[in-house]
Amino acid sequence: MADAYELFLEKLRKRKGLDLTGYKRPQMERRINSLMRSVKCDSYDDYLDLMDKEPQHWRKFIDTLTINVSEFYRNPPQWEVLQQKIIPMLLENSPNLKVWSAGCSTGEEPYTLAMIFAYNFPRVSVSILATDIDEEVMAKAKNGIYNEKAVANLPRLYITKYFKQEGSNYIIADEIKRKVRFQKHNLLKDVFDKNFDLILCRNVVIYFTEESKSALYKRFHESLKPGGVLFTGSTEQIFQARDIGFRLVSSFFYQKA
Q1: What is the domain-level CATH number for residue 27?
Q2: Residue range 88-111: average pLDDT?
Q3: Which parts of the chain are coiled coil (predicted)?
């Protein structure tokens, strides 16, 4: 028999179209219960009613669950490997690259990619798709305005060339914004495009169940071209990589065999 939390997830799916069944229960339940306490809701049904009546509480719910923490050039050594080893390797197979930043949050990751290509591979034709389940964070990404903390790890040459500073804000250049196409997408239920040379999914799946993660990595494998590469986060090692059909070409970089 379903307990109160499971019934809440079912009602949430029907009423709001949000399916959280692929996420780890302890973390999600802890966050949801904390939100309920903050608005003095004693039951899941009361909380659902509140989110229906007052949209700001639904907004807060989405923000809390999706954990939109991002920055440019996150984990710099991994970006250096991407620039110096992975991209040149991909270009040996194709002069034009198709790239997907999955779970792009406020846009720092796909814009980092766009800057790397613009500065280091200016003659390469690259298509960059950036997706996220949260439309509001993508709206911020499209604006392209960031604070000093967001650009702290970014090489100075990129900041100088591709940003305009206004007070404490850094505004990304239009030439970089034009290189990225943003689209709403749910990794756990929406259809995946095919024939990507490179997929980045970093610091996104840590809240997914093991079953959901395994299914997701298989779908990423199917979406890559032969020889394409999946770039994961620092805490997201794929233990069954070989069984899926990946081979490790560098730490956090998995190539479709």
Answers
A1: 1.10.155
A2: 94
A3: none
Do 98 and 209 reside in the same domain of the chain? yes
Beta bridge partners of 224: 196
Residue at 197 is within a domain: yes
Q: Report the distance separating Cα 128 and Cα 203, nearest Å.
A: 19
Longest alpha-carbon distance in the chain: 60
Domain membership of residue 151 as a residue range? 76-256
pLDDT in tens, 2-37: 688 888 888 887 777 677 777 778 878 888 888 889
157 plus 205 within the same structural domain: yes
Answer positive or negative: Cα dihedral of 92, 197, 181, 72: negative
Instruction: Tell me the two tokens of residue 254.
Output: 């998995």
164 and 171 Cβ atoms separated by less than 8 Å: yes
C-beta separation of 103 from 132 below 8 A: yes
> Do 88 and 51 reside in the same domain of the chain?
no
Looking at residue 193, its pLDDT comes to 97
Same domain (yes/no): 27, 142: no
- Give me the long-range contacts of 207-213 (CB less than 8 A, separation at least 24): 207/23, 207/24, 207/27, 207/28, 207/67, 208/22, 208/23, 208/24, 209/22, 209/23, 209/24, 211/22, 212/22, 212/23, 212/188
Q: Are residues 80 and 62 in the same domain?
A: no
- The residue whose two tokens read 């093991």 is 210
The model's pTM is 0.78
CB atoms within 10 A of CB 166: 9
pLDDT given for residue 73 in this prediction = 84
Report for 32-46, 132-146, 242-256: range of highest mean pLDDT: 242-256
Domain-embedded: residue 51: yes
- The count of structural domains within the chain is 2
* Per-residue confidence (pLDDT) for residue 67, from 0 to 100: 55
